[in-house]
Design a protein that fits this description.
Distance between the termini: 60 Å
Number of helices: 5
Radius of gyration: 27 Å
Order of helices and strands: EEEEEEEHHHHH
Strand order of the largest sheet: 4-3-2-1-7-6-5
Structural class: alpha+beta
């Protein structure tokens, strides 16, 4: 079976026979092929142009002539409009929007995974400097299981431990006088102004 980006089959057709009207008003027989991240304008067996989903900003179907639509996208900083004729223009629009949605959902998941890994790495460095343990394995196993969340309780308890180490006078506050001994304890030599 064929899988898409998120592991389920697309619900709409992924290739459309179209007539693309070029800038001279001539009709060109093409196939619009939807991939995981772009729309390919295919002439026979050769892709003439690849339009990334991230650059498509609008698709309009003509209400009076439902076999026509306009595809708006950015190409190298310029706004481009393709005039397209297709028997299923509304389905073409729907399929492109669905593909863009899958693309965006995948990218959001990937961005969240990267952010969680970065947060985990930062906390690991912080805990290591204070002599604590790593949380990296928790984040990696959660990411592999498809759950993108940090174990908040684990991090809060580690932050409380770190705070307790910094709150030497037990006042419930960390001020500059509490931090004076910290660099020496970490083996770092800092000047007074730092």
């Amino acid at each position: 079976s064929r899988d898409c980006v998120l592991g389920s089959l697309p619900t709409l057709p992924q290739a459309f026979a179209v007539k693309k009207i070029n800038k001279f008003g001539l009709s060109q027989a093409r196939v619009f092929q939807l991939t995981n991240d772009s729309l390919l304008n295919v002439d026979g067996r050769k892709a003439q142009k690849e339009v990334p989903f991230s650059s498509i900003h609008r698709i309009d179907v003509d209400q009076k002539k439902p076999d026509r639509c306009k595809l708006y996208f950015f190409l190298q900083g310029d706004s481009v409009v393709w005039h397209v004729r297709c028997k299923l223009a509304s389905f073409l629009k729907l399929a492109i929007l669905e593909a863009i949605s899958r693309f965006n959902e995948h990218n959001c998941w990937e961005i969240e995974r990267i952010k969680m890994a970065a947060i985990s790495d930062s906390l690991d460095r912080f805990y290591a400097n204070l002599g604590g343990s790593s949380t990296k394995c928790h984040v990696e196993s959660a990411g592999a299981a498809g759950r993108l969340s940090l174990d908040v309780r684990s991090h809060l308890s580690k932050l409380r431990e770190a705070f307790a180490q910094l709150d030497v006078d037990g006042s419930g506050k960390v001020c500059s006088s509490n931090l004076e001994d910290l660099p020496g304890g970490l083996g770092v030599n800092l000047e007074q102004f730092e």
